[in-house]
Amino acid sequence: MRYSIRGPRRGPALLATAVTLATVAACSNGSPSGPSGPSAPTTTGASAPATATSAPPPSPTPTPTPSKEYPLSSAPRTIPSVRAHEAARGPGWKPAPTGGVVLAAHSEGLADEGRLIAGELGIPYRGAAAAGPGDVELALGGTGAPESYTLTVRDGRVRIAGPDEAGVFYGTRTLKQSVKAAGAMPEGTVRDRPAKPQRGLNVDIARKPFTAAWLEDRIREMGDLKLNQLGLHFSDDQGFRIESSSHPEVVSAEHLTKAEVRRILALAASRHVTVVPEIDSPGHLGAVIAAHPDLQLVSGSGRTPRGAVDISDPDAARIVDDLLREYTQLFPGAYWHLGADEYVALMAKNPEASYPRLAAAARAKYGPSGRVQDLATGWLNDRAAVVRPTGKTLKAWNDGFFTGGVVNAAPDLEVEYWTGKEIGARQPVSYLSAGRKLVNLNDEYLYYVLGQPNDFTYPTGRRIYEQWTPLVVRGTTPVPARYDSQILGARFAVWGDLPRAQTQAQVANGIRLPLTALAQKLWDPAKPSLTWAQFTALAAKVR
Questions:
Q1: CB 156 within 8 A of CB 115
Q2: Per-residue pLDDT tens over the stretch 478-496
Q3: What DSSP state is assigned to residue 438?
Q4: Which end of the chain is less crowded, N or C, counting CB atoms within 10 A of the terminal residue's CB?
Q5: What is the bridge-based pairing of β-strands 188-192 and 157-162?
Q6: pTM score, two decimals?
Q7: Bridge-partner residues for 160, per DSSP?
């Protein structure tokens, strides 16, 4: 307020002015005034005369410490970045010995998440209890998309709530990363959810037998990056890498025991990572053929292509189905991968001429128009029928789907699109326009092939970060945006073609930034706001 004295004042008027200024000063120093405090005389330049006895000077009052004024908060610095942050004024939240992690009412299922984040932040876990000053409260409930969460920092507390356990877990990852990056979680509210439901890593443990400990380390990394799928390709020409009770003869000397697999699965469940197993057939079965050479496919000229079983032989189907029934019980997750790629008979220029036995079987089963591709599609559908009663979602590689035949692949199979490099390979739009759902494993960006054979080069995180999106399914050209909802996500794939080209530690280091970049692009569909240099600097802090 500004006061203007227009001219000299004398006598009572000057005294009144002095009283007015003293009253204003008292108010500015925190003295009670207005409706909530004692009434004070109000004077103006035209007020009635006053005397010294009628208006004593105000009593001294202590000056309070002024409250701190906080700027509006900024979004937390995390990978992947959060989708929305509502800024607020306040100090934010830092872990302190007086705080702890508690569970809201009806949220007992979050005990694992609570213990984990408490240990990571170095504060106690107190379980089901009312939230107090400095606490982190985890809560189940409310509406929202799967895996979504709301994280609120207010009044010196953190509350993370979501409709499912996975969402709350991802909220704890945001909190952990923000504390690692900046020492605190900023004031305000985060509302976050993934752009794609399937986000992950695929590992070929058949050709390069990675240890259980190595896989567990990757699961921990994946959880912190909000990735939710680990594909395990555990059967191929070079090895069969998980203990079997139905066919122990096919198992390689170096393999995972079922006890190790169960330990991996338990850790994966705690990090909300689903393991997607794959027994690839009818190609890539060399380890099975080594124990059962009578199943080997033979061409009309007597050639025996590696890894391909004779799909006209009922014994081949029987053994594969035995293995499918055994391992679908071991792996409780929601997905199963049937393989179906690179069946050598279908890579011949004229399959019917090159493999007359398969051609005869196709005609016998499907009539005079039946071809080898129909026999292979029938094989895929029959294997799907074995797994389908378990309720799992079924997947197959894109080069196991054919058009123009007597038989079509079952409509519930998800396409895992990895390549279009083969002669006559179908474009992604061919599957999408037919209504298929698709997962992106584009070998141009997402294939880490050990030894870099066949013109493969190790992919970089920068190229994924700056050039790739889930719409870029084949090569470098995106499919039309109208198909976005049919593209369910993506996985980064490690293949052990030349298994000794890198050690396990080198592989872990080599895929670190590509996997980090992939996590960003699958969670947040917006163009990243950070430069690559800024992104890598942040990754060094939060990972």
A1: no
A2: 999 999 999 999 999 999 9
A3: E
A4: N
A5: unpaired
A6: 0.87
A7: 138, 151
